[in-house]
Amino acid sequence: MTKVFLAALLTLGSSQAISQSAAPTTPSAEDHFHQLELAWMNALADKDAQALEATLAPEFSIIGATSTLEDAVGTREGWLSVGLKRPFPRHDVKILGVTAIGDTAVVQAVLSATYPPSPFVPEGGPVSFLVTDTWLKRDGKWQVVTRHASFPHQP
Fold it and tell me: Where in the sequence is the domain holding 114, given as residue range(s)?
């Protein structure tokens, strides 16, 4: 009787372990926003105007790494114009943190790529940006409302 009871417990425990390991998992907020950020940067590299316009909220604004005090805040139209005109490489995206509150999320990340010669990298080469993006979920789809980008401090 004891052997039957132990066998039943082992079988029950094994089946629970299998069912728990096979349970569907949902992606973490970091994984989800990693995919959104990567898709945005890939659309930029691919000059995919339709994807970029769907990603950027109508009121999108940006304070970029090359913003000046005289012209600090860029518009959606300005960003799209530059983004579709200049060459941009594919970026690596490293999510540093996601703060999600309801249908809003603030994403902090590092974007890294090897850039061709450009106004902020005259010779071209590796560049990393620190970014903070605010995303808003509308009609079931996430759009970025604002971005702040800066160059990391070089010690």
Answer: 28-150
